[in-house]
Amino acid sequence: MQRLKTRPQFQAALSGGTVSRTPHFALHRLSLPESLLTGNTSAPQGTPTGSNSDTPAPLFKTQEVWLGAMVPKRWARRAVTRNAIKRQIYAISAQFEVRLPCAAHVVRLRSEFDRRQFISATSPLLKNAVRLELEQLFERAAKPS
User: Could you tell me the residue range of the domain that residue 29 belongs to?
Assistant: First the structure.
């Protein structure tokens, strides 16, 4: 599994649409057509493409499962909470990697976990709640449509 690293990769994956949703998370997926792999997309004029070529650099270099995690500060104020949630996202996605299609995926936190219920940022209670919800999210996304 490859990880999304650049802003254009995240934007492309988010534009693919939502394939699964839970109360706190959304999973976006973009199928990887050949144009994204080979760099045949039309880049805006003046966009540097590197290595002095006329074709833009490809967003995704290989046809495999790509994954990114978005945990906005708006929904998880403390960095320790954001990092713990991201670690959970990558750990659960590794379990579902063989069942996911070769595409670009982004898991996005879309609402806050109640801080009155989950007092500690790394409490076992919060980790368990995040894990259960992520398993539901990936289970729904892995089902054939």
Answer: 2-142
Closest among 105, 29, 39, 103 to 67, alpha carbons compared:
105
Q: How far apart are CA 71 and CA 29, in angstroms?
A: 17
Chain-centre distance of CA 51, in angstroms? 28
Assign residue 121 the CATH number of its domain: 3.30.230.10
Give pLDDT tens digits for 2-61: 899 989 989 989 998 899 999 999 999 988 876 555 554 444 444 444 455 555 667 777
- Start-to-end Cα distance in the chain: 22
pTM of the predicted model, to two decimals? Answer: 0.79
Burial 104-131 (b: 16+ CB within 10 A, else e): bbbbbbbeebeeeebeebeeeebbebbe
Structural domains in the chain (count): 1
Asked whether the beta carbons of 65 and 103 are under 8 A apart, the reply is: yes
